[in-house]
Amino acid sequence: MTGGARQTWRRFKRGFGRDEGSMVIEFALWFPVFVLFLGSMCELGLISARHAMLERGLDIAVRQVQLATGAVPQHDELKDIICENAIIIPDCSNVMKLEMRPQNLRHFVDLPHAADCTDRSEEVRPARQYVPGKENELMVLRACAKFSPIFPTSALASSLKTDGAGDYALVSSGAYVQEPR
Predict the structure, then answer these.
(1) Angle ∠(40,45,47) on CA atoms, nearest 5
(2) Cα separation of 162 and 152, whole Å?
């Protein structure tokens, strides 16, 4: 062996048994997993907060309708009431759609499973059904709001059901009895 090769071989043999640089490999393997986990947790926290605020806004709007004996706000007015109280929903009036239906207490018919939601990939269409109701009638109100995931490549966001534009839906429902006028 030549002198340079011997020196390299000795240096190589001396390196065995040392632990220098071993954490770099573990870091390189585990860091992406932790980043995906952290992104998923941030996404889940935001989804939970938005859903809680949507529930709160809908509950306050239903309460206001119940207390305003006989005066039922129209679709846009009710949407504005919900949006005023659901403060962390961005662009609330454009991402939310309401559906209101009267229900018969004796012959209850469940709402359609798929909520009536906005979809940016489709043409704008009117609300499926919005009927203010008559006196002493049970009314079911459902709100659907669409959002884009913050981390679309995270494990949580990829498991969410999305529409053509890549948005996921948050749905909240409320019920009240239309008071006599």
Answers:
(1) 95
(2) 11
Closest CA to 143 of 101, 87, 88: 101
SS3 144: strand
Q: Token pair for residue 161?
A: 């059901």
- Which one-letter amino acid corresponds to residue 83? C
Q: Output the tens digit of pLDDT for each of the chain's 181 residues.
A: 567 788 877 776 666 556 666 778 888 889 998 988 888 888 889 999 999 999 999 999 888 887 776 666 788 888 899 999 988 888 888 888 888 888 877 777 776 667 777 666 555 555 556 666 667 778 888 888 888 888 777 777 777 777 777 788 888 888 888 776 6
Q: Report whether 146 contacts 105 (CB < 8 A).
A: no
Dihedrals φ, ψ of 20, to 5°? -65, 125
* Alpha-carbon span 179 to 137, nearest angstrom: 8
Quick one: CA dihedral 37, 39, 42, 45, positive or negative? negative
DSSP state of 130: B
Q: Which residues, in sequence order, are bridge partners of residue 174?
A: 141
With beta carbons less than 8 A apart as the criterion, state whether 152 and 41 touch: no
Give this prediction's pTM: 0.74
Tokens linked to 170: 């948050």
For 22-53, the DSSP string reads: HHHHHHHHHHHHHHHHHHHHHHHHHHHHHHHH
